[in-house]
């Protein structure tokens, strides 16, 4: 079995992908195929991922609450490692739920039903069968946010104070497994992310206050194999709409999609983007 530190170029029978929404699963699938690996894709009905079938050597689309079926597919596939990539709308899953026995059993065992707890429980069940759960960034390290000031404009001293304050607040919120993002100004909390997601949080903050600072972090107790904080071009567009001035991300522990386009737009409108190494 492959270890987490082994090279992506080492031979393996098959890599599995449990795919949610968005571009992340597509980027991962392409990276796996580029590495010369066989690819199994398991996605969920209604996610709009049918194009992944063109990249996959084996493709399955199942109801999101059929966890027993997912485990059966993995067991029969001879996959050696599996990654979870893409957004899964938990509220949508709950509303459309017709769970099988395995899903019900897993759900009842959870101490809480927040994202981290659910994903850890899923990973434990998968690894119990001998399939290693890996981070998608093993194949896509270039998506990780670099450290430093990423835009032409630099943060002011007041904005730096807000970034420091925002990191402390976001880490405290993350410790409770509520969300990964906060919006602050003048060392005051304007908005905290919950179920609605980052873009909606930014837009909500924009109705309350302008010239704010958005901070997005890796939660202290988070498993780095899945659900890393992520931003992209849409994030910058939401910031423009909400008149936000600064985006601070945790360097090396967050994903930055469409980075070149996003930073180009940020430079055009004078938004500051920084990657902060947090210890």
From TrEMBL:
Protein name: UDP-2,3-diacylglucosamine pyrophosphatase
Domain LpxI C-terminal: 146-274
Entry-linked Pfam families: LpxI_C, LpxI_N
Taxonomic lineage from the root: Bacteria, Pseudomonadati, Thermodesulfobacteriota, Thermodesulfobacteria, Thermodesulfobacteriales
Residues covered by the LpxI N-terminal domain: 14-143
Protein origin, superkingdom: Bacteria
Organism: Thermodesulfatator autotrophicus
């Amino acid at each position: 079995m492959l270890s987490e530190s082994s090279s992506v170029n080492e031979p393996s029978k098959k890599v599995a992908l449990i795919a949610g929404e968005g571009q992340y699963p597509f980027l991962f699938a392409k990276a796996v195929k580029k590495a010369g690996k066989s690819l199994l894709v398991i996605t969920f009905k209604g996610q709009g991922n049918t194009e992944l079938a063109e990249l996959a050597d084996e493709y399955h689309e199942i109801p999101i609450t059929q966890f027993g079926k997912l485990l059966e597919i993995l067991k029969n596939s001879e996959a050696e490692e599996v990654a979870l990539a893409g957004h899964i709308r938990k509220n949508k899953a709950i509303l459309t739920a017709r769970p099988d026995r395995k899903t019900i059993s897993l759900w009842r065992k959870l101490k809480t039903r927040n994202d981290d707890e659910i994903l850890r429980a899923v990973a434990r069940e998968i690894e119990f069968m001998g399939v290693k759960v890996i981070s998608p960034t093993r194949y896509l390290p270039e998506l990780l946010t670099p450290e430093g000031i990423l835009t032409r404009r630099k943060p002011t001293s007041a904005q730096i104070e807000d970034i420091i304050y925002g990191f402390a607040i976001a880490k405290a919120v993350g410790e409770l497994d509520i969300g990964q993002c906060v919006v602050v100004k003048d060392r005051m909390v304007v908005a905290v992310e919950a179920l609605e997601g980052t873009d909606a949080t930014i837009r909500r903050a924009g109705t309350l206050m302008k010239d704010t600072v958005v901070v997005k972090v890796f939660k202290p107790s988070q498993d780095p194999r899945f659900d890393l904080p992520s931003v992209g071009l849409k994030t910058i567009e939401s910031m423009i709409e909400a008149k936000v001035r600064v985006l601070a991300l945790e360097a090396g522990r967050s994903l930055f999609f469409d980075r070149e386009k996003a930073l180009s737009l940020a430079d055009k409108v004078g938004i500051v983007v920084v990657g902060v190494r947090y210890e």
